[in-house]
Each structure stands twice: as structure tokens, then as C-alpha cells.
Specification:
The complex is a heterodimer of chains A (about 775) and B (about 375).
Chain A (H helix, E strand, L loop, with lengths): L22 H4 L7 E7 L3 E19 L13 E19 L3 H11 L7 E5 L3 H12 L2 E4 L2 H15 L4 E4 L7 E3 L9 E6 L3 E6 L5 E7 L3 H12 L4 H10 L7 E2 H5 L13 E3 L13 H26 L4 E5 L7 H15 L4 E5 L5 H10 L10 E3 L16 H9 E8 L4 E2 L21 H24 L7 H21 L9 H14 L7 H13 L1 H9 L3 H17 L5 H4 L4 H4 L19 E2 L1 H8 L6 E5 L5 H16 L3 E6 L10 H14 L1 H8 L3 E5 L12 E2 H9 L4 E5 L1 H6 L9 E7 L3 H6 L7 E6 L16
Parallel strand pairs in A: 1-4, 4-5, 8-13, 13-14, 18-25, 19-20, 19-23, 20-21, 23-24
Antiparallel strand pairs in A: 1-2, 2-3, 3-16, 6-7, 6-14, 8-9, 9-10, 11-12, 15-16, 17-22, 24-25
Helix pairs in contact in A: 2-3, 4-10, 5-8, 6-8, 8-9, 12-13, 13-14, 17-21, 22-23
Chain B lengths: L11 E6 L3 E9 L4 H6 L2 H12 L2 E2 L3 E3 L5 E6 L2 E11 L3 H10 L9 E4 L1 H5 L1 H8 L3 E4 L1 H14 L8 E5 L8 E5 L7 E6 L3 E8 L2 E8 L3 H12 L4 H10 L7 E2 H5 L13 E3 L7 H6 L2 H27 L3 E5 L7 H14 L5 E5 L5 H11 L3
Parallel strand pairs in B: 1-7, 7-8, 11-16, 16-17
Antiparallel strand pairs in B: 1-2, 2-6, 3-4, 4-6, 5-6, 9-10, 9-17, 11-12, 12-13, 14-15
Helix pairs in contact in B: 3-5, 6-13, 7-11, 8-11, 11-12
Classes of the chains: A alpha/beta (about 775), B alpha+beta (about 375).
């Protein structure tokens, strides 16, 4: 049922109405804002708007190489360009601030095209007049439930790790769910004043199948009567301290123990408030609040289970102000669901549950922009993340989260889909280690990223030598990222599961935020230039080897090339400087690769496989610029092409560390093609394809890849996937199960990680896998047909 | 196989010790021969006289005279069946009386069911020198229900329903029988609630239960209004207005919420108006008692309806002491079943509301299964 307006006004007007954070840090990009939507609940207002963000991107452009090359000529030029991208802003604040906020928006709103503001939520009518007067926009009311469902579909589809299971006593309280590409059908139990139970079958099809009048309003209203405590939060606080057994009649109070015949344990509540049926006993506020909380949570859980069973649904999401990030209610609801379904159904909660109505209202108003045709990504730099677990743990943060909370979503240029070759998309987890659950690993990586921060700042400044204010921006970046790291130390679950990938991505988002789109551009350029000069020599020396020697040299080349990685800590350390500082082809041969057998070594099986028929098509996810791509990957690709295998090279759409971007790779490949007839023929005959991955991360999420890539993979009947590098093959996808053959190659360039995996620094992982029950569909054995 | 019980020694009792109330049924033989009269020991006589000549026992024991079944034939004996109840917390006084009246000298088996049969077993032994024959409460409940519905009695019909539940002016109680009752959803509302799906006399399962039952109604009423008995709470509820306490659909949407077919009069949030300080100050104790009653009753209705749907059962039988002198709740349940199921579900009630467990226990004494 609808969230009702908070009628207790005595708490709000005493509040300081000044905004503690600079408002321009909250209502960002207002100048280009359009399409406003607002969701006014009982105590919180959620504002949504669509805006465009202008930021710098690094573009590469090939020089004209038709003229004879002079030594020292650069391969391509790098230019900074302004690019406009779309972003969704969502801001949550207490209703007390609504007037101040509207004033601020009015003052900064430049765009005059906007005429209407979509509104939803129980409080929308109450503030209608105020909004219309302040903003001069017509308030257009949208159905609350429709908005809620629209918003829910949107976050489930676009935000990885949106849904989580809550486990109070587990190592990590939040267990995030992997994104199931198929989000329907599901049950949404919205616990506002009352309870609405909605079955959602598709984007446009949902039905309120039931509900209950015993909801958050009952807890609040009855709780206020029983305990003389006015505020909802305080009631929850009371409840968390109480003992319900002094108020409730338990099975053991009736039976003296358990009711064994029915399997009801003694501690089960037989009758809520059953012990208070007496006039001559006093009960503590805490105990009554606790009993009330149990009564209501159990009742809602029971009804939700009955509805889930009747409609045969197993995914049940809970939301509404009763739930909204409150660990106390998430725990009791979870307990109830476990009890009534004997663990068959899990209670699921949403990280952005509070925004659903605003997101939905916004989407209603933006239908002509077709927001659902795009993929969107949570911007870690601009989003507050999920706040504190327990109210006592971090009171300051909690107080702040009650004031302003932000969510920003970037419209991605490409629509993202699953790699069609995932064995089971619904169980695929990109990340190898969940740092939310692994405390020592979390400690280490947070420390590691903090340590590396100085270096990143330096490199960012160095990448923009012509911009004097770069140092200032870099400093801002430092502050922002350090703050993010601090937040994550306190609340590792803030953005879903904490992983090395999320730490890397957050850093990229923060760099972009301060207009450092590509700090490595110059380094990448230099390394590409140098490596290119040695390409022919490398290919020639490889061609002189016997077939078997050559196969090993190619693999070794990919691995050795992968050591050249500015993203890795060990490589930029002084001990390694002779290698990293001045890249030279001869060094390529002195890379301290460990001897076989490697840490993970299925080279023999790979070699056996190579003696068999060629693969139809190989999809190669590449890693670094320079030596890695040019002297490691390209010769390997060349060999695949020579064998008759088509090759799809997948590289990042946007920059991340020193990873080669699609733009750079286009130029590099052209240059190599000019020197190498095999590559040239491959391009010309369309047997070598360069595609974007759709990602701008140093890691790889195979469930969010460019739609075009997925299409190509399907069309070409790809039967081999090669993943290279620590970020893509170790931090992520190490355990990824594919439905075709796969090859994961990486050198462990981090001593801690090497230690963890039972190896040493520069240990090699060479993991060749063939899916079970699918040896080789052409021949059945690895012998020439 | 039924055993001849002609010679089973009197007194014949069945007892159900619940969380809140102890229910006792007593068979008073009316066909005692002169010979029997001679043989009857003084203790037995004294008990019979004490029980049948009083309608109240001690401070809290009550005999529900209106429920008495007269001229009943049980095991070939003719007599009257008496229905007595007292609060569970007064069980010590009962045991004391048993001791004073030398109950144990009669060498009878005391068949008892309900949780208290387990909890107080040792008290019976220690304080009154009585051995309990413990029986499962759900087995007894079903046995008792089926028996009382089947006995031919001159009084009003055991089973009834409400005609026109949607229309308060024409809503009337109508007698019926439990012929071909299966499958049947049996909802027992005591302190807590148990919901059973009954497929035949000896085939049933407990579908679920809820802790929001009669105990919750009384417990909350005591806290909210300062009352101390069920009768007081009901009396207050009958004079109150729950719509001042509850937030209705029309309070939020101004009328019906048509998008989802919710009528304006439906409760959107029980006690929802009590979130507001002003409204908290303006409601009466009677309003609060009424709202508590409506909340608990409607919730039992919702859960029952969902169970009926899940189990694919259309007949619902409500029993238990929560319904005693509680026409308000019965009519609400009858209406809720009818309205939300669009007439598919039928709510039935039984006159002997809370005594079926005790009757079942008595039957176990006479015909051990």
C-alpha cells in the first residue's frame, strides 16, 4: 500500500534547513538538466533528472603514413576532445529540505524546454502547489505502483549486484546476487504503511495479487501507542534492544517445551502479546517494540510466502519504508521467510530500493527517449552507495545518509548483453574473490590501492602537461578516491560486492570525474611506437623455429608481453625499473618468467589440441598496449589466422590503465598489416575483426559485453575464447565456465596474490579448458580429420 | 475397533489445557440405577453434585449452561454433557480442589490434551496424585468437531453460517450440517491460530498457523485500554469505531483505488492513523479495542483465504474460543471469506466454539483409537 505522508511534523521543523554539503556537489549538472521527476514519501524526497555531462575523452588519430617514415615519427596523435554523455541523477533528501532544494534548482535551471515534472509518492499532492510555484513546472502525477515496478525493473536490469540477501550473523551481512539476465517473473512485496504484493511478469505486465493492512504503519502507529515513542527509527532502535519472550506466549509457555508431534520448537511464538493479557504487569518499551516487530515481520513473511507459493514464484524482493536499509527489519523478514518456506525462498532486498519510485516516475516521463533501449551503469564516483549496517556502528555516516544520498547512472554508448558462450549466465560470477567476504584480502587490496594513489595522481598530472590546473584536479581526484576507499573500508558492501574490479572501476570513474580520461595515453603511445619497431624482427625469429618450438615461443611471447604492465605494482617498483623504464625488445627475452611446470599448466593439452583441426573462430580479449599487444598477442593471432582460424580481437571501448583501447588497436593493426601480409590478408578477407568489448574496465565482466560483440561471436560460431592478463583472467573469470574451449593466460605480477595462489611473483597461469562432455564436435579426437 | 464402555467407571471427563483457558467437559449420567446409586462412592457423588448444581466455580470457573447437551447417549448411557472453562493460570486452584475432593481415589483416567497436558503433567501428579493420559490436541480437535456435529440433539444445530454476509441489515445466522464436509479447512483460533486441512476423519495436516490470535487481541487490548478480561475487551470493541484508528484506502486515495480493485472502505494500514500524534490523542479506548479486533480478525481471514486457495479447499470451519460471544469477528470472517473470494469460499461456525479438544479427549477415554 502507499507510503503515507509523515504526519508528525514536530520533528522536522526544528531541523536546520541549511544544506550541509555544497549544493552544487549534490545537484550536479543542473545546467543541462531536463526531464525532472520527484517521488515524495513520508519522510524522504527523491528527485530525479536527466542531464548531459561534458567531459574530456582521449582520442587517437592516425598520422598520414603514406610518406616515407622518418625515425622518431609517432605512430598516432592523441587529442583531448570534449564528449557529451547522458547521465541520470537521483538525489534523496529529507522532506524538511524540499523548499531549499527547489530554490536551488530554480536558480540553476537553465534549460527552459522542461515544462512538466513527473511526481509520485504519497506526499506528491501535499507539495504539488509548492513545486509548481517554485519551479514553474506542471506537476504530473503518476501511479505509484507503476513507478515502483518500472524502477525495480530498471535497477535489476542495469545495476549488477543490485539485489542481496541479508544474513545478520554471517561474515558479510550482505550477500549480493549475480545478475540474472532473465529478471522476470518476480514478486515485489512493498511494505509501506500497509503491504502490497505485486507479481511482475514482464516489463509492462504486473498485477497486485494481494496485500495486507498490517505493515509499517501498524508498527509505527501501534508502536507509538504502546511505547509513547514517536519516531519510526526510534521504535526500531527500541525493538533492537528488547526481549520479545517476556511479552509473547511461546510454544514452551504452553507445552513446557517443544510441541514435538508437529515439530514446533519451544521458542516459537504461539501467541504474539499472549503474555500481556493481564492488567497487573508492566512491560518494557523495548520488549513491546520487539514483540510488535516480530509479529508484523512474521505476518508479512507468512503472507508473502503464501502468495509466492500460490503463484509459484521463487524470487521475492522486499521494499518500502519498513525495510529501507534497516538491518533490524531486513533480519526479521529474512528470518520469517526462512521459517515459512523452510529455506526454499530467499528474501531479497535492493540496494537502491529507496529510488525505485523516482526512477520509475522519471522513466514514465522519458519514454520518448527510450531509456530502456540503452544500457546504464552505476557511476561509483557520483553515487553514495549503500549506507551503514547497524545504526550504532557509524552514527555520523548514518546521519549524513539521512540527509543527502545520491545515485548517478551513466548511459552507456553500447547496449550490453551476455557473452553467448557462458555456460550458465545465471550463475556466472565475474569476480574471483569477493572482498566483502574475505577480510584479509580486503585489507590487502584496500591498502594496495591506497599505496598506489600517489603514483596514479602523479601520472594523471603528467598526462596533461599543457594544463596548469591539472595538479589541482588531480588533488581533488586524490581526495575523492581516498574518501571512497575509506568508505569501503567501513562499508565494503556500499556498491555491491567489493572486488578488485570494483576498486579499479571506482578509480577509473573518479579519474573521469576530474577529467583525466586517459592518464596513460602518452605512455601507451610511446610503448606502442617502440614495440612496433620490433614486430617484424619478432615475427621473423618466430618463423625460424620448428612448429613445436614456435607454439611454445608464441605462448611464452604472450605471457612475457603481459609482464609489461604499468598497472601492476611490482612492475613499477624500482627493482623492476630496468625493464619498465626503458622498454627494449631485447628485454623481451629476459623477462623473468618461471620455468614450466607453471603454477597452472595445461600447455601440453593445448599443444595436443593444436595438432588437431583449426578452430573455427577465436575470440581474444586483449590486455595491455605496447609489447603485450604488439609482440605478444599479434604474433599469436597471426599463427591462428595461418591455421585457418578466424580471430575476433576484443578490446576496451574506453581507456583503463594502460590497456589498449579499440581506437588504438585499430591504428596498430593497420600499421602491422602494412608490414605483415598475414595480418593484412586477415583484415582484407574479414577473417580478423576488431570489436569493442563495451567496457572501460581493466577487468572483464562477461555478462556485460557489447551487443555487437555478442552478435559477431554468434555469427562466427566462435569455438575458442582467449582471455589474457591478470585483470581479465585472474581477478575476474578465473572460474568462468564457458560452453566452448577457453584459454586463460596471465602472469601473476603481485606477490601477495601469487602467495595466495600458492606461487611466486611472476608465476604463470596457463589454463586451457574444454567444457565437459564436449571434446571436439568436429572430430571427437584431436587428430587431423 | 470400538470397545464396549458400559462398565467404564465414572466420572467421565475430557480436558483441554490451552495457553489461556482450560476447557473441561463432563458427562453427567442421568440413567443411574438404584443399584448404581447404592454403589456410588461419596466422592463421586460430591463431584457430580458440585459440578451440576453450580454454574460458577471459585472465582473464575464457569459452566456454559447454554451449551449443555441434554439427553445425550454416550456409550449406551444417557446423560447430559456439561461444558466448563477456567483460565489456565488458575489451574493450581483446580488441582487443589481435586485434591480436597479426593479425586484420585476414584481411580479414573484423566484424558487431557492441549499444551498444558504436557506442561502440567507433573503438577497433576504431585499436587493431585493424578496421572494424565496425554493426547494430541489436533487429533482431539477433529474428533470433537466431527462428533458434536453428528450427535442428534434436541437443541439448536451445531453448525451454522451467515446468510448475506455483505449486508449488515440482512446478515442472519442459518443452521446447517457438516454433511460431506471434506476437504475442509479447520481454523482453530485460540491464543494462537492453527489451520488444518482435513481430508477425512483420520487424514489431516496442519497447513500453517499464526501467532496473531485471540491472545494477541486480548494482550494488545490490555496494553492499549487497561482492560483485563476478554469480555471487557469485546464490550469495548463493540462500542468503538476502528476507522478512526485504521487508515483506509479512501484516506489515501480519496476513494477506491481502482487500478487494483481496492474499495475505499478497505483498510490500507491497520493502526495507520496512529502514526499521527493528533489522531493518537483523539481516539477512545473503545476505538482502539475495535481496531485491534478488526486487525486480528481480518488477518486471520487473509491467511485462511490464502491457505484455502493453496490447498484448493472451499469450505472453511472456524472454531476456537476467540469466537466465543464474538459475533463481530464471526461476521467479519464470514464477510471476508465471501467478499475476497467472490463468493467461492464459505465460512462455517460451530456453537461449541472452543470445546472440541476437550470433547475429543473425552471420546478418547470412551473409545480409545
Amino acid at each position: 500500500m502507499a507510503e503515507c505522508g509523515r504526519v508528525d511534523s514536530n520533528t522536522s521543523h526544528t531541523m536546520d534547513k541549511s544544506i550541509t554539503l555544497p549544493p552544487d556537489e549534490i545537484f550536479r549538472n543542473l545546467e543541462n538538466a531536463k526531464r525532472f521527476a520527484i517521488d515524495i514519501g513520508g519522510s524522504l524526497t527523491k528527485l530525479a533528472y536527466y542531464s548531459t555531462v561534458q567531459h574530456k575523452v582521449a582520442k587517437v588519430r592516425s598520422f598520414d603514413h603514406t610518406a616515407k617514415e622518418a625515425a622518431g615519427d609517432k605512430l598516432y596523435e592523441i587529442s583531448m576532445q570534449e564528449e557529451v554523455t547522458a547521465r541520470l541523477h537521483f538525489i534523496k533528501f529529507e522532506n524538511a529540505y524540499i523548499e531549499t532544494c527547489l530554490d536551488f534548482i530554480k536558480d540553476h535551471l537553465v534549460n527552459t524546454e522542461t515544462k512538466v515534472i513527473k511526481a509520485t509518492g504519497g506526499g506528491a499532492h501535499k507539495f504539488k502547489e509548492l513545486i509548481e510555484r517554485k519551479l514553474g513546472l506542471k506537476v504530473d502525477k503518476e501511479d505509484e505502483m507503476t513507478c515502483l515496478i518500472k524502477g525495480c525493473n530498471f535497477v535489476l536490469r542495469n545495476i549488477p549486484h543490485e539485489a542481496f540477501v541479508y544474513a545478520k550473523h554471517a561474515d558479510s551481512e550482505f550477500r549480493f546476487q549475480t545478475t540474472n539476465p532473465d529478471i522476470f517473473p518476480y514478486l515485489l512485496v512493498n511494505i509501506g504503511s500497509g503491504v502490497s504484493i505485486v507479481k511482475v511478469e514482464s516489463e509492462d505486465k504486473f498485477e497486485r495479487i494481494g496485500g495486507s493492512s498490517i505493515g509499517g504503519g501498524t508498527f509505527w502507529g501501534l508502536g507509538a501507542l504502546l511505547t509513547k515513542t514517536k519516531r519510526f527509527d526510534e521504535l526500531l532502535q527500541l525493538a533492537s534492544k528488547g526481549q520479545h519472550a517476556s511479552v509473547d506466549m511461546l510454544v514452551k509457555d504452553i507445552y513446557g517445551g517443544s510441541y514435538g508431534y508437529l515439530g514446533l520448537t519451544g521458542d516459537l511464538i504461539a501467541s504474539s502479546f499472549g503474555k500481556s493479557a493481564t492488567a497487573d504487569k508492566e512491560f518494557s518499551k523495548e520488549d513491546m517494540a520487539k514483540s510488535l516487530l516480530h509479529m508484523i515481520s512474521n505476518d508479512i513473511g507468512q503472507l508473502a510466502c503464501l502468495y509466492a507459493k500460490l503463484h509459484n514464484l521463487s524470487r521475492v524482493y522486499f521494499g518500502g519504508f519498513f525495510i529501507r536499509g534497516h538491518p533490524v527489519t531486513m533480519h526479521t523478514i529474512t528470518y520469517s521467510i526462512n521459517f515459512f518456506t523452510k529455506g526454499e525462498v530467499q528474501a531479497l532486498f535492493l540496494r537502491h530500493e529507496g529510488y525505485l519510485g523516482a526512477i520509475g516516475a522519471f522513466l514514465k516521463g522519458a519514454e520518448e527517449d527510450n531509456p530502456n533501449q540503452y544500457s546504464w551503469g552505476e557511476n561509483y564516483a557520483g553515487s553514495s552507495g549503500l549506507m551503514s549496517v547497524s545504526p550504532d556502528m557509524n552514527p555520523m555516516q548514518r546521519a549524513r545518509s539521512g540527509t543527502f544520498d545520491m545515485l548517478e547512472m551513466d548511459r552507456l554508448e553500447r547496449q550490453l548483453v551476455n557473452l553467448p558462450l557462458l555456460q550458465d549466465p545465471s550463475s556466472y560470477i565475474p569476480d574471483t574473490v569477493d572482498l566483502t567476504e574475505d577480510a584479509p584480502a580486503r585489507e590487502y587490496w584496500l591498502y594496495c590501492f591506497e599505496e598506489a594513489l600517489d603514483g596514479v595522481v602523479k601520472r594523471a598530472v603528467a598526462s596533461q602537461p599543457d594544463m596548469p590546473e591539472a595538479a589541482l584536479r588531480a588533488e581533488k581526484f586524490r581526495q575523492k578516491y581516498r574518501h571512497k576507499l575509506q568508505t569501503l573500508r567501513q562499508q565494503p558492501f556500499a556498491y555491491g560486492s567489493l572486488t578488485v574490479r570494483s576498486l579499479l572501476d571506482t578509480r577509473e570513474h573518479c579519474l573521469n570525474e576530474f577529467n583525466f580520461p586517459d592518464p596513460y595515453s602518452k605512455i601507451k603511445q610511446r610503448e606502442n611506437d617502440i614495440a612496433l619497431k620490433y614486430y617484424q624482427k619478432a615475427v621473423k625469429s618466430l618463423d625460424e623455429l620448428s612448429w613445436e618450438e614456435k607454439q611454445f615461443a608464441l605462448v611464452r611471447g604472450v605471457l612475457a608481453g603481459n609482464v609489461f604492465d604499468w598497472g601492476a605494482k611490482a612492475v613499477s617498483e624500482p627493482a623492476f625499473m630496468p625493464l619498465g623504464g626503458q622498454t627494449d625488445f631485447c628485454i623481451f627475452f629476459f623477462i623473468p618468467l618461471s620455468e614450466r611446470p607453471w603454477l597452472v599448466d595445461s600447455y601440453d593439452q593445448w599443444l595436443e589440441r593444436l595438432k588437431g583441426p583449426p578452430h573455427k573462430c577465436a575470440l581474444f580479449f586483449v590486455d595491455n598496449s605496447g609489447v603485450d599487444i604488439i609482440l605478444g598477442v599479434m604474433p599469436f593471432v597471426r599463427e591462428l589466422l595461418s591455421r585457418g582460424t578466424e580471430v575476433v580481437l576484443a578490446s576496451n571501448s574506453g581507456p583503463a590503465l594502460n590497456d589498449v583501447t579499440n581506437g588504438e588497436l585499430q591504428i596498430l593493426t593497420e600499421r602491422i598489416a602494412a608490414m605483415d601480409p598475414v595480418i593484412e590478408a586477415g583484415l582484407r578477407e574479414d577473417r580478423l575483426l576488431l570489436v569493442q568489448s563495451g567496457s572501460s574496465s581493466p577487468c572483464l565482466d562477461l555478462s556485460r559485453l557489447d551487443k555487437v560483440l555478442a552478435m559477431v561471436v554468434r555469427e562466427r560460431q566462435t569455438d575458442l575464447v582467449i582471455i589474457e592478463g591478470m585483470g581479465r583472467a585472474i581477478h575476474t573469470n578465473y572460474y568462468a565456465m564457458l560452453s566452448c574451449e577457453s584459454l586463460k593466460m596471465a602472469v601473476i605480477k603481485n606477490s601477495w596474490l601469487a602467495d595466495r595462489l600458492g606461487g611466486k611473483l611472476f608465476s604463470v597461469v596457463f589454463k586451457y579448458e574444454v567444457p565437459v562432455g564436449k571434446p571436439n564436435k568436429d572430430c571427437g579426437a584431436f587428430s587431423p580429420c | 475397533m470400538k470397545q464396549l464402555c458400559h462398565h467404564l467407571a465414572f466420572p467421565w471427563f475430557g480436558m483441554d489445557i490451552g495457553g489461556t483457558l482450560v476447557k473441561l467437559v463432563y458427562f453427567e449420567p442421568k440413567d443411574i440405577t438404584a443399584e448404581e446409586e447404592q454403589e456410588e462412592v461419596e466422592n463421586l457423588k460430591s463431584i457430580r453434585r458440585y459440578l451440576t448444581s453450580n454454574t460458577a466455580y471459585g472465582k473464575t470457573g464457569i459452566r456454559d449452561v447454554h451449551l449443555e447437551l441434554q439427553d445425550l447417549t454416550l456409550c449406551g448411557r444417557k446423560g447430559n454433557l456439561h461444558f466448563i472453562r477456567f483460565p489456565t493460570h488458575d489451574l493450581p486452584a483446580f488441582l487443589q480442589m481435586g485434591r480436597d475432593k479426593h479425586f484420585s481415589s476414584l481411580h479414573t483416567t484423566l484424558c487431557a490434551t492441549g499444551g498444558g497436558a504436557y506442561k502440567f503433567e507433573s503438577d497433576f501428579r504431585m499436587m493431585a496424585d493424578l496421572e494424565l493420559h496425554k493426547l494430541d490436541e489436533l487429533d482431539c480437535l477433529i474428533r470433537g468437531v466431527l462428533y458434536l456435529d453428528s450427535v442428534m440433539s434436541s437443541g439448536p444445530s451445531e453448525c451454522y453460517y451467515f446468510e448475506n454476509p455483505a449486508d449488515p441489515d440482512h446478515c442472519v445466522q442459518k443452521p446447517c450440517t457438516l454433511e460431506n464436509p471434506y476437504p475442509l479447512l479447520l481454523v482453530n483460533i485460540g491464543s494462537g491460530v492453527s489451520i488444518l486441512a482435513v481430508y477425512s476423519e483420520d487424514n489431516y495436516k496442519r497447513v500453517t498457523g499464526t501467532s496473531l490470535g485471540g491472545g494477541t487481541f486480548l494482550g494488545l487490548c490490555c496494553l492499549l485500554t487497561g482492560c483485563s478480561t476478554f469480555e471487557e475487551a469485546l464490550e469495548m470493541a463493540s462500542q468503538g469505531e476502528s476507522t478512526r484508528v485504521d487508515k483506509l484506502v479512501r484516506d489515501i486515495y480519496g476513494g477506491d483505488y481502482e487500478r487494483f480493485g481496492l474499495p475505499g472502505w478497505a483498510v490500507a494500514s491497520s493502526f495507520g492513523n496512529m502514526m499521527s500524534k493528533e489522531k493518537r490523542e483523539s481516539v477512545s479506548k473503545e476505538d482502539l479495542a475495535r481496531a485491534t479486533l478488526v486487525t486480528i480478525t481480518n488477518n486471520i481471514g487473509s491467511i485462511t483465504r490464502m491457505c484455502a486457495l493453496n490447498e484448493n479447499i472451499e469450505t472453511v470451519l472456524f472454531v476456537g474460543n476467540f469466537l466465543r460471544v464474538n459475533t463481530l469477528s464471526m461476521k467479519l470472517l464470514a464477510y471476508a471469506m465471501d467478499y475476497w473470494s467472490k463468493g467461492q469460499l464459505k465460512a462455517l461456525f460451530l456453537r461449541h466454539e472452543g470445546y472440541f479438544g476437550a470433547v475429543g479427549a473425552l471420546l478418547e477415554l470412551l473409545h480409545p483409537s
